[in-house]
Amino acid sequence: MPQQLEVRREDLTEVVQQLTKNVEEPLLRAFSSQAQQEYEAEGKMKPHDGSLSVGCGVFFGSDLEYVKGFLRKMLIVTSQELLDPEQKAIDTRVKGYYQPLRDKLDQQLGEGNYDAFRILEECHKHDTITKESPLGYVFTKRGEVGQNEILAEIRIVN
Fold first, then answer.
1. 3-89+127-157: in CATH 3.40.50.300
2. What is the pLDDT along the chain (158 residues), one digit of tens a residue?
3. Which residues are CB-neighbours of 16 under 8 A, at least 6 positions away?
4. Which residues of 17-26 are buried (b: 16+ CB within 10 A; e: fewer)?
5. What is the residue extent of each domain of the chain?
6. Among 68, 86, 99, 112, which is 20 to 30 Å from 27 by CA?
7. Alpha carbon 47 to chain centroid distance?
8. Coil, strand, or helix at residue 48?
9. How far is CA 155 from CA 30, 74, 96, 104, 152, in A?
């Protein structure tokens, strides 16, 4: 069960820094109204469509200032270690990240019998790390995220 806190908006940065001081790669999520309702009703986060570049998933940011731009009433604190314990996420920031995907498509469909969009679709079948913000990266979990994968729920009070 994640730690549950109520925090004033002006104290949020300090509280998150304290919670994550011993976390190697902290990740944060601010909810849309719909996603928060689902989470509160079901106790898990479900994948939703994002932009074409990130596909469908549960999205987490590495930078608090970036994530605060989406913040309404609740912030989720987790870590890359909890979301991707086997470190299998595809890091799209790494040059040539797509080559294993191309190799797989070459075997399945024949060399050159697909386009770049098909490679992107293949990539979106996996958890990914993408550069979406000048302040950090976005980690996309393609499946549901349960409470055992969360460090803390922070409710904003004012």
1. no
2. 899 999 999 999 999 999 999 999 999 999 888 889 999 999 999 999 887 777 899 999 999 998 998 888 999 999 999 999 999 999 999 999 999 999 999 999 999 899 999 999 999 999 999 876 677 899 999 999 999 999 999 999 98
3. 26, 28, 64, 75, 77, 154
4. eebbeeeebb
5. 3-89+127-157
6. 99
7. 10
8. strand
9. 10, 4, 40, 44, 10
Question: Residue written as tokens 């909810």?
Answer: 31
H or E element that contains 65: helix 64-68
Residue pair 79/151 in contact (Cβ under 8 Å)? The answer is yes
Q: Which two tokens stand for residue 87?
A: 């470190």
Task: Provide the token pair at 13.
Answer: 């940065």
What interhelical angle do 116-123 and 99-109 show, nearest 10? 110
Residues 6+ apart with CB under 8 A from 75: 12, 16, 28, 29, 30, 67, 153, 154, 156
DSSP state of 155: E
Question: Which residue type is seen at 3?
Answer: Q
Burial 47-74 (b: 16+ CB within 10 A, else e): beebeeebbebbbbbbbbebbbeebeeb
